[in-house]
Structures are given as structure tokens and as C-alpha cells.
Amino acid sequence: MRFLVLSLLLIGSLATVAPARAEDEVKPAAATDAAAPAPKAKADDEPFTPPPGWREKKRGQYTVYCRKQSVQGTRLPKEVCYDQEGIRAMLAAEREDREKVDQLRRVCGSQAACGGN
Fold it and tell me: What total of structural domains would you count in the chain?
């Protein structure tokens, strides 16, 4: 019984402390965003064309880009939608992942290079 009460108190105290830390981390990021509006303006000058397979949809006053994606464990496809910034972030993450995999392949491309045992 004591363990249950102590664990509930601990979880409650962590829940109140965690948002304060998240707010502290957001403030410096907002300050750095003010220093970098030039790249965003440059990206906005170019007309946005979604990657192949993405369709444009209107949701009220917003424009989102959607595609159907298969989910593991079910036969029903799930529709995933992002805005322009979300798609650009997703493409940047995919590009970064691809670069990491390529780097691993270059470093460890053969048994001799990896020091195979």
C-alpha cells in the first residue's frame, strides 16, 4: 500500500515538473528562429510540389497533402496528412536517415573493412 501511494506521489510530482522544463527548452529555440527567417522566405518563394503519391486536400482554410499508408498488423490502409512544413520535415528526416545508412555502408562495406572475426 505504501509503495502505491509513494509511486502516485512521484508520478504526480514528475508531471508538474516536466512541463516547466519543456517551456524552458522552447524559449531558446524561439530566439534562434527569429535569427533565421531568410531560409524560410527562400523556401516559400519556390512553388511547393508534393512528392509523388501525395494528393492535395482542402481542410477548411488549410491545404494539406495526404496519402494512404499501409499499417503493419492490418489490411486497411491509413490516410496520413501533412502540411507543407510537415512534408519538408519528413523529407529532410528521410534524407538524413538515407545518409546515415549510406555512411554505415561505406564504413562497413566488406568483411575486411569491418574487421570480421
Answer: 1
Residue in the structure block whose three cell numbers are 495526404? 66
Q: Is residue 33 part of a domain?
A: no
Tell me if residue 77 falls in helix, strand or coil.
Answer: strand
Helix (H) or strand (E) holding 49: none
Domain that holds residue 93: 51-107
Helix (H, G, I), strand (E, B) or coil at 76: coil
Tell me the pLDDT tens digit for each residue of 16-67. Answer: 544 444 444 444 444 444 444 455 555 556 788 888 999 999 999 999 999 9
Is 45 a member of any domain?
A: no
C-alpha cell at 79: 490516410
| Cα 57 off chain centre by | 21
**Helix 37-45 vs helix 2-35: crossing angle, to nearest 10:** 70
Cβ–Cβ under 8 Å, residues 113 and 107: yes
Q: Give domain status of residue 38, yes or no.
A: no
Give the residue among 48, 39, 33, 32 at the shortest CA–CA distance from 86: 48
Answer yes or no: is 92 within a domain. yes
